[in-house]
Amino acid sequence: MPRERRPPGRHDTQRQQFGDELRFWREKRGLSAAELARRIARDRRTVSAAEEGRDIPSELVVLLLEDILDTQGLLIARYESVLMEKRRLRLLRVTTTTTPSPAANALDESIFLEETVADGTLMAPGQRFTKTWTLQNVGSVPWRDRRLTRVGIASGAGLITTPLQVPITDTDPGEEVVIVVPCVAQYVEGASIASFKMTDPAGRLYFPDRYFVGVQAQVVVVRGMSPQEVPADHDRGTHDADAPPRRDNEAFPARKLT
Length: 258
Known about the structure:
Elements: H1 14-28, H2 33-39, H3 44-51, H4 59-69, H5 74-87, E1 110-116, E2 121-123, E3 128-137, E4 146-150, E5 165-168, E6 176-184, E7 190-199, E8 215-221, E9 236-238, E10 246-247, E11 255-256
Parallel strand pairs: 2-8
Antiparallel strand pairs: 1-3, 1-9, 1-10, 3-6, 4-5, 4-7, 6-11, 7-8
Helix pairs in contact: 1-3, 1-5, 2-3
């Protein structure tokens, strides 16, 4: 006798949002559900059940899916959110701590230059966007083997979804860098803020006593709005040329400018 089929999950549940993310990247990579299942050596029902929000795959399968689909960490962030919702506990993966990094140095310093997707930009529910910040390392300390780490939970119905960590390109003093973080707007109407801080690979802070907030992305979701309705003048925010440089002392470079 065949196993009873569970009804599809609600769109606003963490399981369904994981399924939406999986389906988006599978289609983006041009794969059918059957082809993706073959690549991870699983039955097609494993993929279809996950996309419909009826079941959640194991951590091993999620890592295989991430390796094949290259979602830039977004699928794993969705998976972590499912685990938290299920267990009602904080995430078990690396996140920011109050412990300073052994390599923390008071001579670290940066100047904020500009950003794209200005804070307060209007978004459709679940809209995908890329947040960037341009900064300059004006301190005397080279940035080596650092991470941009999300503060707190990296995914949720009312939260902007981002990777848990973004590797930071090694950056020397005097160089300008651009922070690049793939994001998905929250599904709940209203404002949401995602905060990030510079850490080492273990999540230990480089600036434990300064700038608690770190770098932030903030968007406002409007129910019924389509992605095409995002105003063009919200694409970029720049630093006021007449104002003194903003010294964040907490820069998060993702790649060097050439």
